[in-house]
Specification:
Layout: H1 2-17, H2 22-27, H3 41-48, E1 53-56, E2 68-70, E3 79-86, E4 89-101, E5 104-111, E6 117-124, E7 133-139, E8 147-157, E9 160-172, E10 174-178, E11 187-194, E12 200-209, E13 212-221, E14 225-236, E15 239-248, E16 254-262, E17 267-269, E18 273-274, E19 279-280, E20 284-285, E21 302-305, E22 316-324, E23 327-337, E24 342-346, H4 348-351, E25 354-359, E26 364-369, E27 374-382, H5 383-388, E28 397-402, E29 405-411, H6 421-427, E30 428-430
Antiparallel strand pairs: 1-3, 2-3, 3-4, 4-5, 6-7, 7-8, 8-9, 10-11, 11-12, 12-13, 14-15, 15-16, 16-17, 16-20, 18-19, 21-22, 22-23, 23-24, 24-30, 25-26, 26-27, 27-29, 28-29
């Protein structure tokens, strides 16, 4: 996909240099238009933007398509949300909602955007009415580490959808909706980072109503970071937790800010941030992995650097820890191979008894025991290479396949470390999480 995007980008640049118009260049990168009963969506948008337009796609999130189908008014029929730049104002991206009435589509509501690009869009309940609000992160540039957060209220006006901006937009690094009180209504936990001579970072919990955002609680965080790249939360029998993964300022390390709700203090707390040093150290690491439920037990784990074992440079050993009973407790180990997009859960009883090698030419990881007896190997192979001659791999075990690749394993039988084919199939995980 990256190669396809690069080729398309070169085509667009070539056309622009050749003097093509705004609309002509966009035709090269227009997404596939809706078909069937929705085929006139594109016509409706063209009728609304009479001077021409360019569709914009959210860069990340669950809704990273040009035509976003979502039931905003709870009538069991999807509306369509689109982001677009009009030919008359190409420095700003706007948002429009289209609905179908009487068998035809039309734009029923539109709002001016807060930036040239859109980073993400999300739908969640921020108040007690029946409708979900819309949260958009706008970008002033595609490589921005901060975004403009805007929340929009969704209402019905004479049976037609109407959007209105809630309060003022805020500059943020990232955010997550959280229902700390289990009321069915979300608050927003917003993370901000400011640079300069005296850098700072903090997390602030906001309640949201029709008048805007009200700060409920705030905590300082380690400011020696570039920004928060990944945020997830859990609300379990152990309480409420948010895990905010950040890239450190040196760009070679990461840390996780753990945010919990304290009933005792009635506010959010960052238990591993030190106010005396201004740093968070207990959750810092060299690994580029982010927090996830890696072992599928229902609890989120933080990836930390594992104790030293001999490893090739392409492989990292990760000690995954859970925040349980106010302390970080070991949950499991993995061997992670970022270049091949996977990691392997290694049983605790075997972790200090293995040695690891890696063949970069064949993308092959080999695990042996302490006596150098072969235990197993895992190899990533392109699907096209496999299909050329599947007989070459008839003795291999298929572990999984994705994105044009197949993962094959071989097992040894001379080691005291006993790993079965079924074990390996349960051990392999995506590098980014399932």
């Amino acid at each position: 996909m990256k190669h396809i995007r690069a080729i398309l980008l070169l085509l667009v640049v070539a056309v622009l240099l050749g003097g093509c118009s705004f609309g002509s260049a966009q035709e090269l990168i227009d997404p596939i238009s809706p078909t069937g009963t929705n085929a006139d969506i594109k016509d409706a948008l063209e009728s609304f933007c009479r001077d021409g337009y360019a569709l914009k796609t959210p860069l990340t999130g669950d809704f990273n398509t040009s035509y976003i189908f979502y039931d905003l008014d709870l009538d069991n029929e999807n509306e369509v949300i689109v982001f677009y730049q009009s030919a008359s104002d190409p420095d700003r991206t706007d948002m429009a909602v289209m609905d179908r009435s009487g068998g035809s589509w039309s734009v029923v509501s539109s709002v001016e955007g807060e930036g040239k690009d859109v980073y993400s869009i999300e739908f969640c309940r921020l108040d007690k009415d029946d409708y979900q609000e819309i949260i958009v992160l706008w970008d002033t540039s595609v490589n921005s580490s901060t975004h403009m957060l805007t929340a929009y209220d969704v209402k019905l006006d004479n049976a037609s959808i109407a959007l209105s901006k809630i309060g003022k937009s805020m500059t943020v690094s990232n955010y997550i909706p959280v229902d700390i009180d289990n009321t069915g209504v979300n608050e927003l936990l917003i993370f901000t980072v400011s640079g300069g001579l005296f850098p700072s970072a903090k997390a602030t919990l906001y309640t949201v109503d029709k008048n805007g955002f009200s700060a409920r609680s705030s905590t300082k965080l380690d400011a020696h970071i570039k920004g928060y790249t990944h945020i997830i939360s859990e609300n379990t029998d152990q309480g409420f937790c948010v895990f905010a993964d950040a890239v450190q300022a040196n760009k070679t390390q990461m840390l996780t800010e753990l945010i919990i709700w304290s009933d005792y203090y009635g506010e959010i707390v960052a238990p591993y941030y030190s106010y005396s040093s201004g740093t968070t150290t207990r959750t810092a690491r060299n690994s580029k992995l982010c927090s996830m439920d890696v072992d599928g037990d229902g609890y989120i784990e933080i990836p930390l650097d594992a104790p030293d074992i001999t490893l090739p440079e392409q492989v990292e050993a990760v000690d995954w820890k859970q925040y349980r009973s106010s302390v970080l407790k070991h949950a499991c180990y993995t061997l992670a191979v970022q270049r091949d997009g996977y990691q392997l859960l290694i049983p605790n009883k075997y972790f200090d008894k293995i040695s690891v090698s890696y063949d970069e030419a064949d993308s092959k990881l080999t695990v042996s025991d302490s006596k150098n007896n072969f235990v197993f190997s895992v190899m990533r192979l392109s699907r096209s290479s496999y299909d050329e001659d599947p007989a070459l791999y008839k003795d291999s075990i298929e572990l999984k396949s994705d994105l044009g690749y197949i993962y094959l394993a071989e097992l040894g039988n001379d080691s005291d470390i006993k790993i079965t084919a079924q074990d390996l199939k349960s051990m392999i995980k995506s590098y980014e999480g399932e």
